[in-house]
Every structure is written in structure tokens, then in C-alpha cells.
Design a protein that fits this description.
With 166 residues, this protein is of the alpha+beta class. The chain has one domain: Olfactory marker (Jelly Rolls, Sandwich). It is 19% helix and 34% strand. The chain has a six-stranded antiparallel beta sheet with strand order 2-3-8-5-6-7. The protein has a three-stranded antiparallel beta sheet with strand order 1-9-4, with helices on one face.
């Protein structure tokens, strides 16, 4: 969110949609619907306005610095971290694997375009620190992005900035 210039040693990681995993999760939903089956107890199915994104960590020793996001229209975006190491062909997403806090940022429909995005600063700070903690033991981490109130993936730019541990 901060427009300050990043330090030269900063590492900015961009969230990228994992289209294959998103599609696999959508197929699970449609398969259950076609067969008339119910989800497993505790299973978290992907909703139509959600997509799976990922962060790849080139190094594991990181300190959270700041979020960088922009939304070129109105809407609300929520980002939920997922604690599991993904093997989607073998395991379904379970609600117990969703991390707290979630990140939320938005622009109301009646806000002028130049109005800065609103966000829950304390939650976003804690969320960024949690991602840095998990990076210590991961090379990749997955997230659910939910687009609400008119937000669309095409209007979103989202990254998180870290500084290397000294």
C-alpha cells in the first residue's frame, strides 16, 4: 500500500493465479454437483468468485516489509492463506487449513477513482508476518483470493515485499 521507494535489497513477490489448481478445484465442485454427492465433512469448496493464487519463495529467510496492491475499480478483495502443502490430486482443501487473519482491501462503489484503497492495517501487518514465518519452511504457499462487490482479477495488482534476514 505504501508508495515509498523500496530499499535496494528488498524482495517483492507477486501473487500469481494458479489456473491449473483453480480449475481442478472448480472441477471438484462440478463433479459433486453432477453426481449429487455432498462435500466431505470439513471440506472447503471453491466458490465461483474465488481463485487460487500462489507465492513462490526463492529464499526462506525473510522479514515482512509491506504490501503493494492496487485495484483499478471498486470492489473488495479478501486473501486467505492456506496452510497445506498442496497435493490437490490426493487431498481436498479443508477449512482447518485456512489461516487467520485474512487480508482485506477495498474501494466502495461511490468512492472517486483517486480515493486510496481502504484496508485493515493491523490484520494486513500480521498476515504479512505470518507469510514470512511460513516462508521459512516452504518454497511455495497458496492463497484463496475472493473477488466481491465488483472486484475482478483483471483489475488487481498484488504483491508482498520482504527484506532478507541479516
Amino acid at each position: 500500500m505504501d508508495n515509498a521507494t523500496a530499499p535496494p535489497h528488498a524482495l517483492e513477490l507477486v501473487f500469481r493465479e494458479d489456473t491449473a489448481l483453480t480449475e481442478m478445484m472448480r472441477l471438484r465442485v462440478s463433479s459433486l454437483q453432477r453426481s449429487g454427492q455432498k462435500r466431505q465433512d470439513g471440506e472447503r469448496l471453491l466458490l465461483p468468485h474465488e481463485a487460487v493464487y500462489r507465492l513462490d519463495f526463492p529464499t526462506q529467510e525473510l522479514h515482512f516489509s509491506r504490501w503493494n496492491f492496487s485495484l483499478s475499480a471498486h470492489g473488495r478483495v479478501t486473501i486467505t492463506g492456506i496452510s497445506q502443502h498442496w497435493t490437490p490430486d490426493l487431498t481436498h482443501l479443508m477449512t482447518r487449513q485456512l489461516l487467520e487473519p485474512i487480508g482485506t482491501f477495498w474501494r466502495n462503489a461511490n468512492d472517486p477513482e483517486e480515493t486510496p484503497l481502504k484496508w485493515l492495517e493491523a490484520d494486513m501487518q500480521e498476515f504479512g508476518e505470518r507469510i514470512a514465518e511460513l516462508a521459512k519452511v516452504r518454497k511455495v504457499m497458496y492463497f484463496l483470493f475472493a473477488f466481491k462487490d465488483g472486484a475482478e482479477a483483471a483489475n488487481l495488482s498484488c504483491s508482498v515485499e520482504f527484506s532478507p534476514e541479516e
